């Protein structure tokens, strides 16, 4: 299926996987609505493409006023890439209530809130495709990543539930579940145990571009073909 002219909203498009996905989808001719909190990073993305092809909207997904602005775009969307997320690695006994609240609020509750608004618009249109950026951490658990894993398990449950309820409305739901990807998501995780653990990894992380290719693949599938789950691991990380 061609992505030419499709209107695609991507959260977390100011960095990492979301940014790489926005670039690849725009290169396929899609019209992109790129979201993130950092307007300057969104501007740096948009300027790479012809004027108007990549629109930007800066705001916090935990801000209801901002989310209502996203709701208003729902009727014009063909695709929603539900990608924004946060991570703090730390031993489970050292995570603060604020750490836990932050991860659940952004990765689960804000993701659900935004998805509900967009999915209502897609139901009205009787078509659409929603991609959830979950993680291998949605199926496995890791030392030092307890709450992050819990949020991704929850996100995966929401994706699978949404698929069950929306398939009769002509809406596809795909879960892309990467292993470790080389982005800035670990910047705030400076606990010595985390640094030591990351230092012993014997594989090379995936790149954001490699994950973006999986999103392009899912969105390019034939109308009757629903890529439900795409798991991606770095070579040697099984
Ligand atoms: N990197 C990995 O190893 C890995 C593996 C599996 C899955 N994932 C998942 O992939 C997704 C993208 O992660 P990444 O690695 O690309 O991380 P990243 O480089 O840190 O990018 C995260 C993006 O989310 C946005 N964001 C975070 N909190 C936000 C909020 N409250 N409101 C609006 N936007 C917010 C950030 O935008 P601003 O900073 O501009 O707000 C940024 O664009 C996440 O869901 C992550 O869990 C990552």
Structure description:
The chain is of the alpha/beta class and 238 residues long. The protein is 42% helix and 16% strand. It has one domain: NAD(P)-binding Rossmann-like Domain (Rossmann fold). The chain has seven helices and seven strands. The model has no long low-confidence stretch (mean pLDDT 97). NADP nicotinamide-adenine-dinucleotide phosphate binds next to helix 1.
SSE diagram, text form:
Elements: E1 7-10, H1 16-27, E2 31-36, H2 39-46, E3 54-58, H3 64-73, E4 79-82, H4 97-125, E5 128-133, H5 146-166, E6 171-178, H6 192-199, H7 208-220, E7 229-232
Helix pairs in contact: 1-7, 3-4, 4-5
The structure holds NADP nicotinamide-adenine-dinucleotide phosphate (NAP).
Number of helices: 7
Question: Reading side by side through the largest sheet, how are the strands ordered?
Answer: 3-2-1-4-5-6-7
CATH homologous superfamily - what is it? Answer: NAD(P)-binding Rossmann-like Domain
Compute the CA-based radius of gyration: 17 Å
Give the tags.
about 240 residues; about 40% helix; 7-stranded parallel sheet; alpha/beta; Rossmann fold; binds NADP nicotinamide-adenine-dinucleotide phosphate; 7 helices
Condensed summary:
By secondary structure, the protein is of the alpha/beta class. It has helices at residues 16-27, 39-46, 64-73, 97-125, 146-166, 192-199, 208-220, and strands at 7-10, 31-36, 54-58, 79-82, 128-133, 171-178, 229-232. Helices cover 42% and strands 16% of the residues.
């Amino acid at each position: 299926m061609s992505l030419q002219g499709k209107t695609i909203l991507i959260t977390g498009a100011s960095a990492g996987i979301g940014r790489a996905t926005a670039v690849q989808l725009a290169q396929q001719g899609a019209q992109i609505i790129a979201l993130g909190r950092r307007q300057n990073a969104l501007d740096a993305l948009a300027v790479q493409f012809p004027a108007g092809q990549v629109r930007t909207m800066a705001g916090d997904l935990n801000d209801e006023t901002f989310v209502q602005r996203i709701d208003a775009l729902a009727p014009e969307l063909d695709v929603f890439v539900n990608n924004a997320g946060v991570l703090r690695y730390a031993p489970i006994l050292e995570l603060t209530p604020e750490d836990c609240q932050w991860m659940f609020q952004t990765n689960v509750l804000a993701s659900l809130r935004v998805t509900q608004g967009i999915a209502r618009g897609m139901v009205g249109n009787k078509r659409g495709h929603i991609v959830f950026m979950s993680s291998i951490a949605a199926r496995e658990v890791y030392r030092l990543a307890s709450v992050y894993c819990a949020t991704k398990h929850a996100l995966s449950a929401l994706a699978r539930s949404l698929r069950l309820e929306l398939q009769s409305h002509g809406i596809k739901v795909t879960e892309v579940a990467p292993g470790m990807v080389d982005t800035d998501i670990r910047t705030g995780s400076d606990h010595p145990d985390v640094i030591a653990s990351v230092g012993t990894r014997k594989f090379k992380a995936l790149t954001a571009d490699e994950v973006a290719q999986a999103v392009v693949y899912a969105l390019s599938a034939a109308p009757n073909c629903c890529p439900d789950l795409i798991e991606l691991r770095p070579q040697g990380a099984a």
